[in-house]
Amino acid sequence: MQVRLVRSGGLAGLEMVATVDSADLSGDQQGVVSSLLAKDLRSPGVGRQGASDQFNYQLEIQQGNRTVRRHWQEPEVHETVRPLLAALMRQAKPAR
User: Fold this and answer.
1) How far apart are CA 96 and CA 14, in angstroms?
2) Cβ distance 57 to 40 under 8 Å?
3) What are the tens digits of pLDDT across the range 57-66?
4) N or C, fewer C-beta in 10 Å, the chain?
5) What's the domain range around 26?
6) Crossing angle of helices 82-89 and 27-38, rounded to 10°
7) Mean pLDDT calculated for residue range 64-85
């Protein structure tokens, strides 16, 4: 599976992009990716309205011919998804 993260927003508004093969992720992170194929994990009780300086995350998971997209604003990111996003951000580069 290919996993692509685009983080946008924040004070600078700089878009950061990371693309990895899921085989390069830890076992826990691979489990989160698999969960995201089936359901959208969000923090409970958080609305979609956020401050303009918060980050937005667009995660795209490609498995064969199937593509699943998940989108969160900063406060919506579920605690189980945060380590995956952090690992992807360590590999992210500014978008061109």
Assistant:
1) 10
2) no
3) 999 999 999 9
4) C
5) 2-45+52-94
6) 120
7) 95
